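hi support,

uploading two proteins for the ticket. first:
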Amino acid sequence: MSASSQNNSTAPVLPEQEILQAIRGIRFGVVEVVVHDSRVTQIRQTHRVRLASGEPDKISSHPATGG
């Protein structure tokens, strides 16, 4: 048994699979792919929460919004 097969007991996840999973995992937001030397090194997700329009009282009364 070679050293590479000993260290990799499970199949590696391809960057393309990770990117698609990130896209499918959010409804609104951003998926950012960071590449160094032609290789994907990071996949970042930023989730957005869409609030219903016409409900300013709920937005302004929430302490986390600072409003």
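and the second one:
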Amino acid sequence: MVHQRVRLTLHIIGSFLKYLALIYILPLAAALYYGENWRVFLYSLLLTLAIGLFLEFGLKTTKEIERADGFTIVSFSWLLIPLLGTAPYIFLGWNFLDAFFEAMSGFTTTGATILENVEVQYKSALLWRSLTQWLGGMGVIALFIAILPKLGVGGSQLFEREFPGPMPERLRPRIRATARILWGIYVAFTVVELLLLYFLAKLPLFDSTCLSLCTLPTGGFTPTTASIGAYANPLAEYIIMVFMFLAGTNFIIHYQVLKRNFKIIKDEEFRLYLLLLVAATSLLILSQGLGSWRYGLFQALSMMTTTGFTTCDFGSWHSGARMVLLALMFIGGCGGSTGGAIKVVRTLTLLKHSMVMMRRAISPKAVIPVKYNRKPLPCGIIRDITSFLFLYILVAIVASTMLSFLGLDLETSISAVVASLGNVGPGLGGVGPASNYAWLPAAGKVILIICMWLGRLELFTVFMIFLPRFWKS
């Protein structure tokens, strides 16, 4: 049974890698255009293609994808794809750990970087860096589900394991159609943002492309060391703010609005999302002064959607303002968005559950269901969310403690873990917006790589593969 599961997992991952190799054509073309070392991407393409073909055709199997297989395929895909994504960086002379950190940060849309001076890098390498985030935002596997008919019914097992946040209602009876719809909206938003940044905000075409590729996945990589603040362009900031907000919103809402179903905007999660943004922005403006309203709004959106773009050094802000940003990093965007962290829908559900428990304390015999959008929630969903929150906090505490024992101060340890586990990017202290992750000890980088992996797949998918009973099933 274990042999069959491993064989199927590697066979499916081989199919993914085969198509992933084609993405290298884009940075390869950019390298040729800018007169850079194009062989880096040619070698990366050939290496990824060769490994993909070997796994796909060397490990053929007739086994169908079952529920348990979904955990192994998704977990190992999100390890092996970033691992192969290190190829361009290694061919450029980076050490393996830094290359893996940057690749994992890219594909998981974390945005934490080890680059101390971004502008000196090849433009083709920066484009590849942005592409990793764009592919990871809506999900690499969701993309392959949309284009590969061979996954069939088993694709639903992969989609449920990868899709960020609680599984939404299906937009169509077939999961492949759902993946296509979500990716279609995602691509459309990316193109519109690119056009607005280039034609309206007058940013360079290359920068507009990279920023658009990193906004919709709520990634945070930029072709500049100083992030969005390097452009000193208020119009570009407003455009990016709009698309960060859209990226942090449940994509089911976008689909329903496009169908002119505007009642969906009354969704309770969406309303709490708006309320939290307004409250956080107000607190940031109050702490920093009315003149900082644009900075406050931008950073509130960036942190809550887990994008990680910055327009200023918020690490030097008032301690109360930093606590607000840290809280937003914990909460994250809406379920079904490209944002990371705990998600607004889980926060809302637990708030409602707490209110019901208090009412039951007064009237023990009363039957009071927890409702979401006026519909009772099954007890199983509440148990799942409670378990997720417990594991999330436990992982954050353990990882922060380990970083502290490596010599990092408390603020840096906690914020680095929260930023990595929530796929945010910049933290506070030594990993704030004015710094980077290059100086961390090797063990610290490994811990944060694991946090990025766990955070992107929302803990359970990864933890399952480490249970002995899972492999006996």
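thanks. also noticed: The mean pLDDT is 88.
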